[in-house]
Amino acid sequence: MPSLTDLSTVRDILSRHGFSFSKALGQNFLINPSVCPRMAAACHPEYEGEFAVLEIGPGIGVLTKELAQVATRVIAVELDTRLLPILEETLAEYPNVTVINGDAMKLDLAAVLQEHAAGLPVFVCANLPYYITSPLLMRLLESRLPIQAVTVLVQKEAAVRLCAKPATRDCGAVTFAVRYFAEPEILFSVSKGSFIPAPKVDSSVIRLRLREQPPCPIADEALFFRLVHAAFGQRRKTLLNSLTTAGYEKAQLAQALQTVGLSPTARAEELSIEQFAALADALS
Ligand code: SAM
Questions:
Q1: Residue range 35-62: average pLDDT?
Q2: Domain annotation covers residue 215
Q3: Is residue 121 part of a domain?
C-alpha cells in the first residue's frame, strides 16, 4: 500500500470511495510524512513492554498505521461510517488493529478496552476532531480508565490553554482539570499546511501523562470543579463577584477567602491549584 501522506494516493482513495470531507466532524487529515511517526514514538513515553493504543478518529488510517507498528494492539474509534470501507483497505496489512464504529463521546470505553486490550497498559494517541477537544479530553481524564498518557494533536490555541501553568494569563477552567489529573507538555508544532483540507490555524502535539495521585488532596472534587468553572466563567471579575453571580452567598465567600488567605479582589487567573482546593474545602 503506497504512503497515506502521498497526496495523489490520498486523492485516489477518497475519490474511489466517493468520500467528501465533513467540516462538522472536524475532518482534516494529516499529509505531512514526519508527524505520524513522531506521534507514534512519543505516545508511549519510557515504556517498551506490550501496550495498547486507543485512537480516536482514525480517518483514512495514516496515524493508525504508524501506531500499529509500535503497539501490540490498536483500537481505533471512528464515527463516520463512510470511512469504514476505506480503513478496511488501508489497514488490511495490520491484524493488530481493531476499528470500532462509534462516537468517542458516548461509547463505553471501559468495556471497549476490557474487550480489546484487557491486561495491557493503554496509551491514547489521536489527531482530534477540534469540535470535541476539551470535552473528550475531560472524558478520558475523568474516566479513571487504565490510561497512562494521552498524546494528541490539537489546535495551537487549545494546546496553550490545556498546557498552561495555573496563575498565568493563558489558563482557563480546563487548565486546572488537566493539571489535576495529568502532567501536560507541548511536544511540537504542526503547521496548517500539514493537513488536507488545510485548517485556518496551526496545531500542536501535546502529551498529558496521567498522575497516580492528584497534586493536592481535595475533599470534594465535584465542588472544586464547579468552583473553577464558575470562577473562569467570568474571569475578568473578582472571585467574590464571579462566585456570587454563580450562586454562592457573598458573606460566606468573603469569609472563605479570608480563611484561605486570599484577597477579596483576587481573580481566577491569579490562583494556584492548591488555592482553589483550599477555597473549595473552606466552602464545603
Ligand atoms: N487520524 C486522521 C488523520 O490524522 O488524518 C483523521 C483525523 S481528523 C482531524 C478527525 C477524525 O475524527 C475524523 O476521521 C472524524 O470522522 C473522526 N471523528 C469526528 N468525531 C468523532 C467522534 N465523536 N468519535 C469518533 N471519531 C470522530
A1: 96
A2: no
A3: yes
Q: Which of 127, 128, 130, 195 to mutate to test the pocket of ligand 1 (most atoms within 8 A of CB)?
A: 127
State which of 65, 80, 153 you would mutate to test the pocket of ligand 1, scoring each by most atoms of that ligand within 8 A of its C-beta.
Answer: 80
Q: Whose CA is nearest to atom 2 of ligand 1?
A: 59
Residue type, 19: F
Pairwise CA distance, residues 68 & 211, whole Å: 26
Contacts of 50 (CB under 8 A, 6+ apart): 72, 120
Residue 101: its pLDDT value, please? Answer: 98
What is the predicted pLDDT for the residue at 68? 98
* Protein residues with CB under 6 Å of any ligand 1 atom: 25-30, 56-59, 62-63, 77-80, 83, 103-105, 127, 129, 132
Closest ligand 1 atom to 77 CA: 25
**Across all residues in the chain, what is the average pLDDT?**
95
Same domain flag for 249 and 204? no
Cα 22 to middle of ligand 1, angstroms:
10
- Tell me the residue range of the domain where 260 lies: 221-283
Q: What percent of the chain has pLDDT over 70?
A: 100
Position 196 in a domain? yes
Looking at residue 35, its pLDDT comes to 98
Instruction: List the one residue out of 222, 72, 52, 211 whose CA is nearest residue 144.
Output: 211
Sign for the CA dihedral angle at 23, 187, 134, 269 comes to negative
Is 216 part of any domain? no
- Overall number of domains in the chain: 2
Q: Cell numbers 496515524 correspond to what residue?
A: 63
The answer, yes or no, to whether residue 23 has pLDDT greater than 90, is yes
